[in-house]
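Appendix B. One record, verbatim.
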Amino acid sequence: MARKTIGKTTRKTANKATSKAAKKPIKARIKKRIEAARKGKAARLKPAKARSKADAKAAHGALPQWTKAEIEEAFRRFAAANPNPSTELEHADPFTLLISVVLSAQATDAGVNKATPALFALADTPEKMVKLGEARVRDLIKTIGLYRTKAKNVIALSRGLIEKHGGQVPHDRAALEALPGVGRKTANVVLNVAFGEPTIAVDTHIFRVGNRTGLAVGKTPLDVELKLMEVVPQKYMLHAHHWLILHGRYTCVARRPLCEKCIIADLCKWPGKTTAHLPATASR
């Protein structure tokens, strides 16, 4: 009996040891998987954090200055890639352009373009717009953000155009900015697109591009506008507004800029670039 007991004890001890030995690699593998998952998550988060840090650095103006030659080259490439850029807002004349720009505040051009055809089919002049009335305008543009305030401004500015400018959109910054709902950015767009003035309307896209690239650093849209007016070569000034907007809208986007597709990646001063090389498709 004693021998059997000893044998059983020995076998139990051996079984426990074997069990522990078998479990140990499993636990180790699980631990390694958890660590790998954590590292993978950290790797995914790191670029976003790096971009955020780089944006903060850019916002403080801590980037190298562009040389005149670099600025010239950047706009030469923009011009080569898109010789005749234009606004993406659908319009037929200065009045419908003015209304579209007013409606585009805190809204996308695509969203505005979905609403304006029905509106302009009924009212494509200041006189028709006033006759249409605020309630009807509000109903036609209700898919656009801040539509109540915008409808009120559309009627008020249309009335202002009739009373002060004979129903015509004025070719004058002060007169435009005096209209309800029209600020400096809107006036700049109208002056540039409708009247061919070399103005730069700094929206969220241009503000980001100017600061991120180091091309025109400023704490306010006006700061960036004035800097761009200072550094952009005169021969590129007319279209600079659209090149920079389109660049910010489709390439130098807010969350994850497409540096690998950027035609000025090698010139850009942003330290958070996702690539250090100029794409082969870039126009040199």
